[in-house]
Automatic annotation (TrEMBL):
It comes from Oncorhynchus mykiss. GO terms for cellular component: nucleus. GO terms for molecular function: transcription coactivator activity. The lineage of its organism: Eukaryota, Metazoa, Chordata, Craniata, Vertebrata. The gene is LOC110488943. It is found in: Nucleus. It comes from the Eukaryota. This is MYC binding protein. Keywords: Coiled coil, Nucleus. The keyword Coiled coil applies.
C-alpha cells in the first residue's frame, strides 16, 4: 500500500474516532433513522435534520429564555407602575399641585 494512501486512511480513521467520541455519528444515525421511518416524508429534509439535531431546539431554548425574561420584565414593570402610582398619591397629599395651591 502506498504511503500517501496509508496516511489518508489514518486521517480518516482518526476523524471517524473523533466523530464517534463526540457522539456525532450516533446523533446523525438516529436522526436519519427517524427521517427514514417517517410515513410522510417532510418537504424539506434538511429542515427535518436541523430540527431533530437540536439546531432548532437551541433556538427554541433561547427563545424560551427570552420569553421568560420578557414575562419577568413585564411583571416588574407592572409592580413599579403600581408603586409609582402609590407614591404619586402620597406625594399629592403632602404637596398639592400648583392649581390647588393657587386657590389659597
Amino acid at each position: 500500500m502506498p504511503m500517501c494512501l496509508q496516511a489518508s486512511e489514518s486521517k480518516r480513521e482518526q476523524f471517524q474516532r473523533y466523530l464517534e467520541k463526540a457522539g456525532v455519528l450516533d446523533s446523525l444515525t438516529s436522526v436519519l433513522v427517524a427521517l427514514y421511518e417517517e410515513t410522510e416524508k417532510p418537504n424539506n429534509a434538511l429542515d427535518f435534520l436541523k430540527q431533530h439535531l437540536g439546531v432548532a431546539g437551541q433556538e427554541s431554548a433561547d427563545t424560551e429564555a427570552l420569553q421568560q425574561d420578557l414575562r419577568d420584565m413585564r411583571q416588574r414593570c407592572e409592580l413599579l407602575a403600581e408603586e409609582n402610582k402609590g407614591l404619586k398619591n402620597r406625594l399629592q397629599r403632602y404637596e398639592p399641585t400648583q392649581e390647588d395651591g393657587a386657590a389659597d
